[in-house]
């Protein structure tokens, strides 16, 4: 490894079939699109999945397994909120037919079974979990965990699989401040993972990169299609890519809050998934959960029984 190499892409170079999956639900899979297009240019087979906030009982897609559905451009779902269906339609508008596999928002045990079913269905050998934000790195004793239920459920499910490689990328440094993440504790987590040899560096998303321009197009398309509930994270990232700085808002959804749009927001931070899973203090108690409510309850119980670090500002 030297300055001319990317540890993230060195790892991905070994893959034959990569599954990019949104870890935290909602629009997280959009944050993986620059990687999707880059990997295809590298000649890799790439599939897309997302932990879905859409009520899948109201979607007419093909049921692959319990809690797992294939969504395509023609798939009908709720008109007001269906990020995966909108993304499939964006691909169709580009002349491509792309499936997005949707995981239901459930506990870790059924989610792990759905992940295993998708591995059997597709045969991928590598997974990249994509977090729109940074809270997937919180191990449990930080001042705030953000919205950890979906991220840690995805982390546990992928950790249970046998694969050639498992990776995590975070996009949107600073966006989780709205949900109470202490970014000094995030940087502490990065440092800890670096000591473990599990930090794979950063990759900047820059204007003019074809992969980044396509990501921007998809985000703006989804913002028009779902004008009442556009992606806060991806609009913030797009703003950072375009050079916005500070308290600048691209959607009325963030009005009334103070944003910190910054250049670090438009960088992929990459990590070894196994190391992130081993570092998480509350992962094991979640493995036999069956519902998302049970996941939330056990996280609350963990937090009540363990001391947490005081808030820390970044001293620069």
UniProtKB/TrEMBL annotation:
Pfam families, sorted: DUF1152 (PF06626)
InterPro entries linked to this entry: DUF1152
Protein name: DUF1152 domain-containing protein
Source species taxonomy: Bacteria, Pseudomonadati, Myxococcota, Myxococcia, Myxococcales
